[in-house]
Amino acid sequence: MSPQCDNCGAHVSARYYRVRAGNDGQLHACPECTNPATRQRDAAGVETQYVVRSNADGEVITTDGGEQE
Prior knowledge:
Strand order of the largest sheet: 1-2
Order of helices and strands: HHEE
Structural class: alpha+beta
């Protein structure tokens, strides 16, 4: 059976699956279903939540919640 993403079902290489699967043996995301920054945060155990903030000039700055406050 060909390896596939456990999240979206997309085909991945056997090496990608072996290297990227979590401690539970599941591949929770692949290039087809998430972007690289989200995958890295998920692997590090950082919760991804998007927050809208404004700078001093009142311009909206969209951040991903990964910054330390």
